[in-house]
Amino acid sequence: MATATIAPKRVLMKGNEAMAEAAIQAGCDAYFGYPITPQAEILELMARRMPEEGRVFIQAESELGAINMALGAAATGARVLVSSSSPGISLMAEGMSYMAGSEVPMVLINVMRGGPGLGSIGPSQSDYFQAVKGHGHGDYKVPVLAPSSIAEAVELMADSFELAERYRTPVIVLADGVLGQAMEPVVPAYREPPRQTFDWSLSGTNGEREARVVRSLHLKPEDLNLHNVHLQEKFARIAEREVRFATERIEDADVVMVAYGTAARICRTAMERGRAHGLRLGIFRPITLWPFPSAELLAATAGKKAILTVELSAGQMVEDVRLAIEGRVPVHFLGHQGGIMPAPNEILDACRKLVAE
Amino acid sequence: MTIEVADTREVADTREAADTREAADTRRVIYRRPDALTEKSTHYCPGCGHGIVHRLVAELFDEMGLTGRTIGVGSVGCSVFAYDYFKIDFVESPHGRAPAVATGVRRLQPDKFVFTYQGDGDLAAIGTAEIVHAAARGENITAIFVNNGIYGMTGGQMAPTTLLGQKTTSSPLGRDPILAGYPVPITEMLALVPGTAYAARGSVATPQLVGRAKVLLKKAFETQEAKAGFSIVEILSNCPVGWGMTAPASMEHVEKDVIATYPLGVLVDRSAPVAEPR
After folding, report:
1. How many Å is the Cα radius of gyration of chain A?
2. Nearest-CA residue of chain B relative to A50?
3. Do A205 and B93 count as a contact with CB atoms less than 8 A apart?
4. Phi, psi (5° rounding) for residue B47?
5. In a mutagenesis test of the A interface, which of B14, B80, B89 is the best target, namely the one with the most A β-carbons within 10 Å?
6. Cross-strand partners of A173
7. ipTM of the complex
8. Closest residue of chain A to B136, computed from CA coordinates
9. Could you say which residues of chain A have pLDDT below 70?
């Protein structure tokens, strides 16, 4: 190395606050939220920081209010963030469907907690189906990004805004109670994606152009069919270009653990302990949950002894794993609900049995 | 129904051919389509009051020079296609959420004129939280609230504003307060909220009332222009098809019976300018 580099300053940040600050640094123009555990710190940080930056912050009357304020703000072409946790995310399904149908960009953070219903405030990954299968009514999907560390969550905020604007779509950042509440040293790698000019956003005609309408209503069957064909083509483009995943020590692995978010962190500990005892374990970690890295997972696990999917749920992503693998490698599942985390040794024991089979 | 007898403007700005004709025969135009309306025929049923309200709003856009910097926020119900009829930018909302959507638009475009156009099912039932809290925040938006006491678009079901005893497809024996409660005086409720700068109720049941309704709408628009806070004008209108009446009978019903439940007038006027929320 020709020149000495100064070590970037590492700061200790709470996940919720790191994501909020990263959104601000990514040029977020407006934030709308409603208090709910375990993501209230996002709302609180935004309440303080957005006015400091001369940007828009509103604590809405409900998650319905928040997501619809986001719809209005996003229709003007603004960079908009909304955050909530599972029960609140359910309320936002209506607005998400309208935004997907109206093709407006927006980023939604879900700091998942246990369900169903009011569930618990403990960490969970039980909103996977909701996030990756479309969330609200109608034929649509939105990109879902799942950070596995606070540092990665920071990076993904800028990427999320970029994806949202590139494809005119809502984007979900799917975190969980651990990522939201934990503190980790982070090198704040903030980035502000360049601004685009939009030919669809609303600012008043100023008497200089035709009126624009941001809408999802297409009453004629032919029109709605065409609109849906257009949306499906867009989803196919996203699926083709935007798949993200990470692997660890997968080349010589006998058993591959598939996990995202906090579950992947626990799997890493299990993998390291297993490796120390001569067990050849690896990790395949989807970063985009939709589009799911199906082809990549299939290729990465060809000839392996077994796959162990680990989730903080009753088994949701495992369905996509099985679809991707098409029975070519045995797919097993380990998970807990209700905020209970699988222990590394529990995962290690399961892997040990699979290696021995 | 409304006649612009005092309007002596030439038609130069709309159709050139017509303009030439006008100039040649020196006829005076006393009634024409406001510039802010498109040429599209509306989908409203014959005799429906929505067309009158659209016209009043468009006349005010013309007169106040608002068209180019207005962003409309649609709703769900009979007025769902309003974006086809105005030459302005428009965003659609989910049912009842227009005041929240308008909040988002107005906060990001603080120099624009932003209004919602909502019916009574949209504003006074499913959208109650959104309208109350937009008012509570004193959002500088104007809600144009067309109350015809029925869900027209879905086939004439009972609305929160349906009169006691009124028969609808979901109150077939007439609205019984024991079963279905009482008409909701939502505009009076909103007038209580300090963030509401202006709240009024008018009607389009007679030509005189149409003229009066325009005055109320103008005041509401001026309230927003002064950034004084939330403004709402409720317009009592009709639904001849949903009510099973002829158009004239439905207008008479508004004049004689509906106004008795929903009295006309200015309900609150706190429109002195205050600081705009950021």
Report:
1. 21
2. B278
3. no
4. 90, -5
5. B89
6. A109, A145
7. 0.95
8. A61
9. 1-7
